[in-house]
Model the fold of this input.
Amino acid sequence: PPMSSLAEIQGRLQRIYRDCGGAGEQPKSDKARIEPKDAFSKLRRELHRKVIELRQSIRERDELLEKNPTSTSLVRKSQEIRRELREIRELHAQLISAHEACPAVKRKETRRTKEDTDTIAAQEEVIDVVRKHIEECSALEKRRYAERSARGEATTVGTRDRT
Done:
């Protein structure tokens, strides 16, 4: 079969989408998505984005480490990672505050509905998952220094043997 052009494939996919009950064109921008209204959901979404960015920064830093372990760009990337980690920890604290300010949490246990209990459990699970991400990313950040010191390499840029 002959190769189809990208435009033909997109046209077919849009036709299939409409035939299956879709409304035609899908939203083209992220702004078209429904934004969460409550503070907890907004913070959760921001934390999700920042954790992805942090993990990408750690991967980039590890690649730099393999290429040139004494470069200044490696130091800058490490500083950026530590800054991102601080921001995520601050957002995590804000997430906990937003959870505590949630009306479902503030209600007396005897007045809570099943929906309140489910909301509280879901939020506590999100808080725990974020905490685990922070711990894992901290360990990944620190791993670099542990590996280098185990190999007997200098852990700072510009350090020379002064013998």
Remarks:
- Helices lie at 6-19, 39-67, 72-101, 103-106, 114-151.
- Residues 114-151 form the longest helix (38 residues).
- DSSP finds five helices and no strands in the chain.
